[in-house]
Specification:
By secondary structure, the protein is an alpha/beta fold. Helices cover 38% and strands 20% of the residues.
């Protein structure tokens, strides 16, 4: 397709191959040229999911499962399909993409914050009941400490469980060259920033940098990357809207 709002714009997409399709298709629908440079892959945790399985089985009434990403939702859903959650256990998802994946896995989502970041979920999370309560936090092996700390501060007993891990993958020379010659890069997580910067350096990034949300932008800034635009809606559609808006006023 040509003649769209992103005609002539080359955007680097850093998501894993098996998760990049929705972003690539949305950008190409707007006439962008996409350059797929996968920088990470998603793997099972070192224990094969044993801690997650045990944690989910131990939950009871007044307890919560908090899922922070679609990858976490997939792994929680697979276990719950075999071993249903106890009656009264509630599920929180940190954003619309995570909620959608959780529901596709057969989970009922009871809480989703307006802002798809840890701080947004903590602000919406209920007070711990007087009878007590636990939170099973299912997330990546390496993640920000904001959410477990804030939930613990609210009085919840937090079980921070590794649901999956993110592994950096090598970027070949052709992809490095394609990255340097592109117009923009769209980062969807802090791990994609870390991996691409390790591969090409800050100087090897395209001139315009987009981040899906403030947590991703924070990682980029800490690495010396100047972030031009942070999506207001921290989702793939929100990221695409931010990219489209940025180029809307081109001559």
């Amino acid at each position: 397709m040509s003649g769209g709002p992103l005609d002539g714009v080359r955007v680097v997409v850093t998501r894993p191959h098996d998760q990049a399709a929705s972003l690539i298709e949305a950008l190409e629908t707007l006439s962008a040229e996409t350059v797929s440079v996968p920088t990470i892959r998603i793997e099972d945790p070192p224990d094969g999911g044993l801690a997650l399985r045990a944690g989910l089985r131990s939950l009871g009434p007044d307890d919560w499962v908090v899922i922070t990403s679609p990858n976490g939702a997939t792994r929680v859903g697979a276990i719950v399909a075999e071993i249903p959650l106890a009656l009264g256990v509630k599920v929180a998802a940190i954003g619309p993409a995570t909620k959608a994946r959780a529901e596709a896995e057969g989970l009922t989502v009871d809480l989703m914050p307006d802002e798809a970041i840890a701080e947004g979920l903590a602000a919406r999370f209920p007070a711990r009941p007087s009878t007590g309560g636990r939170v099973l936090l299912a997330r990546a092996e390496v993640a920000r400490e904001t959410l477990p700390l804030q939930l613990a501060f609210m009085g919840w007993n937090v079980d921070d469980v590794v649901a999956y891990r993110t592994v950096h993958v090598d970027v070949n020379d052709d992809d490095k060259t394609a990255c340097r010659s592109a117009d923009a890069v769209a980062f969807t997580s802090g791990s994609t920033v870390q991996s691409l910067v390790a591969a090409v350096g800050v100087e090897g990034l395209p001139p315009t940098v987009f981040a899906i949300g403030p947590a991703t932008a924070e990682v980029a800034t800490a690495l010396g990357v100047a972030v031009d635009v942070v999506a207001a809606d921290h989702s793939i559609p929100g990221l695409v809207d931010a990219i489209r808006a940025h180029y809307a006023d081109r001559p």
